[in-house]
Design goal:
Strand content: under 5%
CATH topology: Chorismate Mutase Domain, subunit A
CATH superfamily: Chorismate mutase
Structural class: mainly alpha
Radius of gyration: 16 Å
Number of strands: 0
CATH architecture: Up-down Bundle
Distance between the termini: 50 Å
Shape: flat
Number of domains: 1
Helix content: over 70%
Number of helices: 3
Order of helices and strands: HHH
């Protein structure tokens, strides 16, 4: 029983990573548009909106912790092309 549940967690972990890879590819494309159009990399208002929206689904402090890491990495990706 525990092995079946662990396998389900493994599958979800793989899905989370696959989704992050897809998210970072989109962030890279957004960074190219920001450079082309002269927008700043940082979008703190957008980040706050995302955290607020997702905090309704999961503990707000956990959401903030997770997404601050995701946002930081997204900015790093975008700065590479800036």
């Amino acid at each position: 029983m525990i092995e079946k549940l662990r396998n389900q967690i493994n599958n979800l972990d793989d899905l989370i990573i696959d989704l992050l890879v897809a998210r970072f590819k989109i962030a890279e494309a957004i960074g190219k548009i920001k450079k082309r159009d002269g927008f700043a990399i940082e979008a703190m208002g957008r980040e706050a909106e995302i955290i607020e929206r997702l905090s309704q689904k999961l503990d707000p402090e956990l959401v903030k912790t997770i997404y601050n890491i995701i946002f930081a990495y997204s900015r790093t990706i975008q700065k590479k092309n800036y």
